[in-house]
Design a protein that fits this description.
Layout (H helix, E strand, L loop, with lengths): L17 H6 L9 H4 L12 H7 L11 H24 L21 H4 L10 E5 L6 E2 L2 E2 L9 E7 L5 H12 L5 E7 L6 H10 L3 E5 L4 H4 L8 H13 L6 E4 L5 E2 L2 H6 L5 E3 L2 E2 L6 E7 L2 E6 L15 E4 H4 L14 H8 L7 E3 L1 H4 L4 E2 L9 E4 L11 H10 L3 E4 L4 E2 L3 E2 L2 E2 L2 H5 L1
Parallel strand pairs: 4-5, 4-7, 5-6, 9-14, 16-17, 16-18
Antiparallel strand pairs: 1-6, 2-3, 7-13, 8-15, 9-13, 10-11, 11-12, 19-20
Bound molecules: uridine-5'-diphosphate and manganese (II) ion (MN).
InterPro entries: Glyco_trans_43, Nucleotide-diphossugar_trans
GO molecular function, one term: galactosylgalactosylxylosylprotein 3-beta-glucuronosyltransferase activity
EC number: 2.4.1.135
């Protein structure tokens, strides 16, 4: 999902090495701070200098006495500023431990502190769900043959547009091959879509269909946080069901999934990762693996992300995730994966590389062209049972694909033997 079209986050002062900021003249702060930490690496939060001065009592006449009185003043200011700086560091920056990794590298991006305010507490609007598996056979074996496998919770954000139903049908026919899977379909719209209910019910796969609209304030933002409200709702559903067993995977409605992916992720102990094809400039994103261990990441858009991976490039075991009550996916376009993985305390040495040590591509970030739903000029008086067209256009309209109109849209061409004739010629 992240790609080069996202703007990197604006750096906060605490996102950079202190020295860099001082060099660039971006940071002015009390010199005593470097005395506070022996390693000299303090993460500063920008404070207007005037504010700091007034906090420090600098409104008194300046340095007009002897050196000893200056010294006393300096100590006085220091004593007042020291606790304030501590307060800023430890209280206002709760994620401060997140800024350095095991190698001691300061991480340039730490966005979670800005967004953690919106803790996961989504109102859930379930449209329909079914827990029984109605498939008798899955890949030529009776369903009972798979009873011991952990369940894969496959989370699909989706939203109304003319490609929605075809995308979900295509995905459903992939998922029909996968045993022990619960499909969480979270639809980005206000109310329930009865047509989607009917479709999902027809596939026979256990599923939960929920309405999870993007909050209005984010719709106006460009780029918008696509699919975040949906995934947050799904995380809330998992939390509410107290699930501590099974595997979570975020599978968008427009990706292409190799069936081997499902057997690979089913073994996930904590977090597994694997390459995703067709991501951004390199057409690939994924871990770099040496001696069976993930050592780095290949992705054309880093932007300070500690985990520069695609949403489809990892799976998480629920037994691991349930240990992190602050699991979150903030509304921060481009940083959803990174901040989600940070919220579950991932460490690089814990990552399980999949797909023959990340040499296979088991999922593709295919994208479908979006178009506005079509309007076809076709008289309402012909939309009856004299022909198939009435039923066809009613179905297309329920799917959000197209509608017929008496007055708007492109005039429908109806032809025979290569010649078009009036509508009434065929339909009257
Ligand atoms: N999505 C959504 N609401 C939107 C746009 C997208 O729920 O307004 C879903 C979409 O169906 C997909 C996921 O969020 O499953 C990612 O969106 P998209 O595929 O458009 O983004 P990309 O893969 O190009 O980053
Ligand atoms: Mn997509």
């Amino acid at each position: 999902m992240p790609s080069a079209h996202y703007q990197p986050l604006e750096l906060r002062a605490d996102d950079n090495d202190e020295d860099d900021l001082l060099e660039e003249g971006l940071l002015e702060h009390c010199t005593i701070e470097t005395d506070v930490q022996p390693n000299g690496r303090i993460r500063y939060h920008p404070q207007p200098v005037d504010e700091l001065r007034s906090i420090g009592g600098m409104t008194a006449p300046r340095f007009s006495r002897a050196a000893s009185s200056g010294m006393r003043r300096f100590l006085f200011v220091t004593l007042i500023l020291l606790p304030i700086c501590f307060l800023i560091y430890f209280v206002i920056s709760p994620q401060s431990q997140d800024s350095e990794d095991a190698d001691g590298d300061v991480d340039p991006h730490n966005g979670i502190g800005n967004t953690i305010g919106i803790a996961l507490n989504e109102p859930l609007h379930i449209c329909s769900e079914r827990y029984e598996d109605h498939r008798l056979y899955i890949d030529d074996k009776p369903r009972s043959a798979y009873a011991q496998l952990p369940v894969i919770y496959f989370v699909t954000p989706t939203y109304p547009r003319r490609e929605q139903i075809p995308e979900l049908i295509r995905l459903a026919y992939t998922l029909l091959h996968v045993p022990r899977l619960h499909w969480l379909v979270a639809n980005d719209r206000e109310g329930c879509d009865n047509f989607l209910d009917m479709q999902l019910n027809g596939f026979g796969i256990p599923y939960t269909h929920m309405a999870s609209p993007m909050p209005r304030e984010y719709r106006k933002v460009k780029p918008a946080p696509r699919g975040v409200a949906n995934r947050r709702a799904a995380l809330q559903w998992l939390h509410q069901h107290n699930l501590t067993n099974g595997i979570l995977y975020f599978g968008d409605d427009d990706n292409t999934y190799d069936l081997r992916l499902f057997s690979e992720i089913r073994q996930t102990q904590r977090v597994s990762m694997f390459p995703v094809g067709l991501i951004a400039e390199y057409a690939i994103s994924g871990p770099v693996v040496r001696d069976g261990k993930v050592v780095a990441f290949l992705d054309s858009w880093v932007a300070g992300r500690r985990w520069p991976v695609d949403m489809a490039g990892f799976a998480v075991s629920l037994s691991y995730m349930s240990q992190y009550p602050n699991v979150n996916m903030p509304y921060k376009p481009g940083y959803e994966e990174d901040l989600f993985l940070r919220s579950i305390g991932l460490r690089i040495e814990q990552i399980e590389p999949r797909g023959k040590n990340c040499t296979e591509i088991l999922v593709w970030h295919t994208q479908t062209k979006n178009k506005k739903s079509a309007v076809v000029r076709l008289e309402n008086r012909f939309m009856d049972e004299r022909s198939n067209l009435g039923a066809l256009f009613r179905l297309l309209e329920r799917m959000g694909v197209a509608r017929a109109s008496d007055t708007e849209g492109l005039l429908a061409t109806i032809s025979k033997n290569g010649k078009s004739k009036t509508h009434s010629y065929f339909l009257n």
